[in-house]
Design brief:
184 residues; mainly alpha; three-stranded parallel sheet; 4 helices; 61% helix; disordered N terminus
Length: 184
Amino acid sequence: MSNVSVSPGPSGPIAVRIASISQLFNSLDPFPFQERDLDKNAEEFIVGWARELPRDEPIHIVLHLPTAELQKPECRDVGAALQKYFRYRAEVTQRELNELFRMGRLSLLIGMAVLAVGLLATQVITGRFGESSLARYFQEGLIIISWVANWKPVETFLYDWWPVLRTRNLYLRLANANVEMRPY
């Protein structure tokens, strides 16, 4: 995007100034216009600005184009194309979230198995060697290994999924954005 401007203030519309509607979309994408991917720079700009907007307000995107560009037939489909693209990105992000939870469950299963084996092994060590320093050394080592094995699932279920969910929700908000085109 050669010339981009934004509206003042964090709650205004996302204003994008472009010379041609084709600047919004990936020119290498072989699909028809309405199914094309957004240009990487255009997506980063729109998504970056949308992150700054209040979460409880609807998103409004204003595309500023030359008057001649506004007369082109594909301009009628730009709003639908943007909404379709962001709906697709929300679906992809939802699949990433599902995969994160699937891997979290698998990690949790493995971590709990390691914890069970570690606790069982500490009982065996205590039974064989009593409360000696060597027995205590191995017991503590097994407990540490057990906690390390559970670190990733705990991190996944407590923290890792929040940013993915926020991104998915942002894409859903962008998929429902009002898209307006104005001449410049």
